[in-house]
Amino acid sequence: MREAFCSLYAVFMLAFVAMCVGFIIALSPNAPFSHIYAYTQLQLYAKSMYEMQIMCLKSFDYGHCQHQEFTPNSQYHIQSHLTPFGDSLLLLDVSAQVHNPITSMQQNVLNRHIILKR
Length: 118
What we know:
Layout: H1 2-26, H2 30-59, H3 62-65, E1 67-70, E2 76-85, E3 89-99, E4 106-116
Antiparallel strand pairs: 1-2, 2-3, 3-4
């Protein structure tokens, strides 16, 4: 009985130490900078996706440009989707996600643009 209690106590202590280390890493001085960097990079990728969709619409038809995905590396994922809204409008939704390696949090950016058909 005593060995079981010691084993259970050791497992709980190990889990507690692991949670404390994760909390300390999340509050490290580099964590705010990594959030700022990831958010800025997501905004730049979302703007690039918007510009790529505009170029795609100028070059091709709506069906070819309806859904686009872009993955510059394994952590960032950017996608866009066009939705017709009436006869002369398109809604462009651009979403970008990244898994922050320092804090292990998911950061997201979602932009909606209104595009006039010509």
